[in-house]
Amino acid sequence: MPTVDLGYRARKQFIPLHRRTQRWACVVAHRRAGKTVACIMDLIDAALRADKPDARFAYVAPFYAQAKDIAWQYAKRYGGAVPGAAINESELRIDFPNGARLRLYGADNYDRMRGLYFDGVVLDEPADFPVDAWPMVIRPALSDRKGWATFIGTPKGKNGFWDIYRDAVKDTDWLDLMLKASDTGLIDDDELESARRAMGSDRFEQEYECSFEAAIHGAYWGGEMRQAAKDGRITSVPHERGIQVVTAWDLGVGDSTAIWFAQFIGRERRIIDYYEASGVGLDHYVKVLQDKPYLYGSHILPHDAQVRELGTGKSRLEMLASMGVNGVEICPQLRLDDGIQAVRMSFDNTWFDAERCERGIEALKQYRPGWNDKGKTWKALPEHDWTSHAADAFRYLTVGYRPLADSWGKPLRRNIKGIC
User: Fold this and answer.
1) Which CATH number fits domain 12-207: 3.40.50.300, 3.90.25.10, 3.10.129.10, 3.40.50.720?
2) Average pLDDT for 57-85
3) Whole-angstrom Cα distance, residue 153 to residue 158?
4) Are 281 and 254 in contact (CB under 8 A)?
5) DSSP H helix total and E strand total for the chain
């Protein structure tokens, strides 16, 4: 193979990535560490060394515009230096003389990748992808060629990227790489200290020290959740048998459904369980309720559960009733900001089971308004991401629960029929 100098010199911090033998890799790196350049070069190198005909490689960002803004300039600079390489500007594509191809995509239109095959992919900030992009489209595209995947990003709390990194650390089939600014030496101490003063401790720890624990800037209930942890109210919360369990649901259409399980005892609201899934029917969630050892009281559903579906002519409320779920109540309609404030005021008497509610707790910590990069202001509406379903269901629990006993902790005076 002829040697081609593309002008790239790998930073020593990324040499383990370039020399890995594992099929899967997860790189957690601080801002300005150079992870995008390293991963684009990793793709180009793999394309030039490909031993399969018509090899295909992809870089995927959360949005197509991001892929173009962040990675395309590097792909052109280094890929374009290959003799005989053809650059297609309109398709963000580089065709190499050996028949291999590198192309940039956005997960916002992940269906565009459906039916394709890949020999290797880089997924940048995968926690910001639609929930089905990796498992339903990108992962299957790697199967017949036994392609590899590298996940890269900077922490934004314990989200999907945290799950990937945590699993990578435990699995020898994965390369896990954690690059903190205090360890890499890529940014000098004076600049780091200046950044800390300008950004504040939480944002600095997240962006430069790769902390998955740092509080999310702007989170609606971040302060309340930190106080709950400080007070010891995120702990082991036992299920009290004989006391009815109230559930609150956010019913997803084409995405996740989230369910909180709560008991009200004395003046305490005890959140004893949380469940979330996607891509399954209502019968799946009914089975989940059946399999848990709970005596159910009311099930709080959002207002749109009463809307009839065109395909069946039935509402989801009617469908649940036909499956034996009784005691359903519809959450009163309340302005979103009023509901968020109601939740904020409800935390002082709320306890969470740390283990069973782990994902839901992280969602409440990170639920936040959208950010307008152009105007540098918070948007009026929350960011719609993986935290939304848990947050909405928790809001329904807060707004929709109505005690049906003279005092909390006594059995609810209701004739409950059916399995739930």
Assistant:
1) 3.40.50.300
2) 96
3) 13
4) no
5) 15, 17
